[in-house]
UniProtKB/TrEMBL annotation:
Keyword Nuclease: no
Gene Ontology biological-process entries: peptide transport; transmembrane transport
Molecular function GO terms recorded: ATP binding; ATP hydrolysis activity
Full protein name: Oligopeptide ABC transporter ATPase
Keyword Transmembrane: no
The family this protein is said to belong to: Belongs to the ABC transporter superfamily.
C-alpha cells in the first residue's frame, strides 16, 4: 500500500434501503445494499471496487459521497467524519470530492454549452469573475485532450469518449482531492476505453488525486488501480494490491471473476469457472458466507469423500429442498409437459422415477463415489417421493452441512496488505468464523439416518 497518508477511511459502512408496503408504509424488509464494508484510500492512490451487477458498488460510492445517508458506520475524509458534517462543511466536501458517471450523455444538460456546464460548479463555489472562469475552463479542456474553443460547443457535437473527457474536466474544475468514478468507461467503445483510463492516470499524477474506481470489469480495474476490493452482496470479500490479487486471488469469488475475463489464450478455457445464477436477493442474503450458494469451492461436509462437483450438486439440491421442494414440485419435474390444470398429483410418487429425475436435474451420477452420501441422498429422495419434504429437508440439512453456511467468515489478513473473507484461506481453516446470524435447520443437528 502507498506510504502516503490516508485521505478516505471507510469503516463498517452500511446502507440498507427500507422495503415498505401499503399507505402506512409498514416496513416489510430491508435491502442490505451495503452491509459493513471497510477500506481506506491513501493520497494519490487509486482503489477499485469490483463485483457483479447488484452487489452494491454504486450504493457504496453514493454513500461515501453522502449522496445517501449511511445506515451505520463511518466515512472519514482527511480525518473528519463526513456523516457529522453540517451544511457548510458538506459544501466544502462536495468541492473536494467529485464524481464522474457511466453515461456521459445523461450527465450533461443538452441546452447548456460546455462552458456553461463547467462554469456551474465554479459559480456555486463563489467564483464571480467570468473571464477567470473562462480561462480555467479553456485550459482544462486542452488538458483533457480537447480544444479551447470547444468551450462554446454543445454536448451533442461530441462523441462518447469526448463527452467523458468533458466529464473529467467538469469533475476537476474545482481542484478536488478525491475522484469517485462509477463505471467511467463501460458506456464507451472498447477502442476509447484505454484512452480515457490513461487520461485519468495522467490527471491523477498531475492533480495529486485519490481515485475510487467502481467497475464490474476486472480489466478496467487492473489497468489503473493500486489496490482492489472485491464486493459480493454488500460485503467486501477480498482486498489487496492489484497485481497480487490478480496473480494470487484468495477468494473463490475473485478466482471466478478472474477466470471469466475473456482471454486470447484459448488453451486455458478448460479452467474457466462459470458462476451459476445471479447474485441472490440482498434483502434476504444467504447466511454464513454469502457466496456459498454459488461457490465452486464450498467446503465439503466432514466425514464424506466427495468430489467438489458432486458436493456442489448435492448442496444445490439441499438448498432447493430447503426453499420448499414439495411433492407437487417433484411431480412437475417428472411431468414437465403437463398443463397446470391437468395436474393430478398422487399421494406418493414412484421413488425410482423421482430418483432418476433428481439425479438428472442435479447432474449426479448413479454412483456418486461415497456410499454414505448416496444413502443420505436416497433417503431424502424417498421422503420427497412419499410426500414428506420436511423429513427430506431435515435429513439433508443435518448431513450435508458446511462451515460455509454455519459461520460468517471475517475479512482476515493473508498477506501484509491482503485480506480475504473465506473459510478456505489461511487462518480460517480452524473452521470457526462468526456464527451465521440466523437460526436454521442446521442449528439443531440431527443424527445421521440409519443406513
Ligand atoms: N434506492 C434504492 N432503493 C431500494 N433498493 C436499492 C436502491 N438503490 C439500490 N438498491 C438495491 O441495492 C442493491 C445494490 O445496488 P447497486 O446499484 O448499488 O449495485 P451495483 O453493484 O452498483 O450494480 P449496478 O452495476 O447494476 O448498478 C441492488 O439490489 C439494488 O436493487
Amino acid at each position: 500500500m502507498s506510504t502516503q497518508r490516508t485521505l478516505l477511511e471507510v469503516r463498517d459502512l452500511e446502507k440498507h434501503f427500507s422495503m415498505t408496503r401499503g399507505v402506512l408504509k409498514d416496513e416489510i424488509g430491508r435491502v442490505k445494499a451495503v452491509d459493513g464494508i471497510s477500506f481506506e484510500i491513501a493520497e494519490g492512490e487509486t482503489f477499485g471496487i469490483v463485483g457483479e451487477s447488484g452487489c452494491g458498488k454504486s450504493t457504496a460510492a453514493r454513500t461515501i459521497l453522502r449522496l445517501e445517508d449511511p445506515t451505520d458506520g463511518t466515512v472519514r475524509f482527511d480525518g473528519q467524519d463526513i456523516t457529522e458534517y453540517d451544511s457548510t462543511e458538506l459544501k466544502r466536501f462536495r468541492r473536494e470530492a467529485q464524481m464522474i458517471f457511466q453515461d456521459p450523455d445523461s450527465s450533461f444538460d443538452p441546452r447548456m454549452s460546455v462552458g456553461e456546464s463547467l462554469a456551474e460548479p465554479l459559480i456555486v463555489h463563489g467564483m464571480t469573475d467570468r473571464e477567470r472562469r473562462r480561462s480555467i475552463i479553456e485550459k482544462l479542456l486542452v488538458r483533457v485532450g480537447l480544444q479551447a474553443d470547444d468551450i462554446d460547443r454543445y454536448p451533442h457535437e461530441f462523441s462518447g469518449g469526448q463527452k467523458q473527457r468533458i466529464g473529467l474536466a467538469r469533475a476537476l474544475v474545482l481542484n478536488p482531492r478525491l475522484l469517485v468514478a462509477d463505471e467511467p468507461v463501460s458506456a464507451l467503445d472498447v477502442s476509447v476505453q484505454a484512452e480515457i483510463l490513461e487520461l485519468m492516470e495522467d490527471l491523477q499524477d498531475e492533480f495529486g488525486l485519490s481515485i475510487l474506481l467502481i467497475s464490474h470489469n476486472l480489466g478496467v480495474v487492473r489497468h489503473i488501480c493500486d489496490r482492489v476490493g472485491v464486493m459480493y452482496l454488500g460485503e467486501l470479500v477480498e482486498v489487496g494490491p492489484t497485481e497480487e490479487l490478480f496473480s494470487d486471488p484468495e477468494h473463490p469469488y475473485t478466482r471466478a471473476l478472474i477466470s471469466a475475463i475473456p482471454s486470447a489464450d484459448l488453451s486455458d478455457r478448460g479452467d474457466r469457472v462459470r458462476l451459476k445464477g445471479d447474485v441472490p436477493d440482498p434483502s434476504d442474503p444467504p447466511r454464513g458466507c454469502r457466496f456459498h450458494t454459488r461457490c465452486p469451492e464450498v467446503v465439503p461436509p466432514e466425514g464424506y469423500d466427495l468430489e467438489q462437483r458432486t458436493w456442489r450438486s448435492l448442496l444445490d439440491f439441499t438448498q432447493r429442498v430447503e426453499e420448499g421442494m414439495d411433492l407437487e414440485a417433484v411431480y412437475d419435474l417428472l411431468h414437465p409437459e403437463e398443463a397446470l390444470e391437468d395436474r393430478d398429483v398422487p399421494e406418493r410418487l414412484p421413488t425410482s422415477d423421482v430418483e432418476a429425475a433428481l439425479r438428472s436435474e442435479y447432474d449426479l451420477a448413479d454412483d456418486i463415489g461415497d456410499p454414505d452420501a448416496d444413502a443420505v441422498f436416497e433417503r431424502a429422495v424417498e421422503r420427497l417421493a412419499s410426500g414428506d419434504p420436511e423429513d427430506a429437508r431435515e435429513t439433508l440439512a443435518s448431513e450435508f452441512t458446511t462451515v460455509c453456511r454455519r459461520a460468517t467468515p471475517e475479512l482476515e489478513r493473508v498477506g501484509p496488505d491482503h485480506r480475504t473473507a473465506c473459510h478456505l484461506a489461511d487462518g480460517h481453516q480452524q473452521l470457526d468464523g462468526r456464527p451465521a446470524d440466523t437460526d436454521g435447520p442446521e442449528a439443531d443437528r440431527l443424527d445421521r439416518p440409519a443406513e
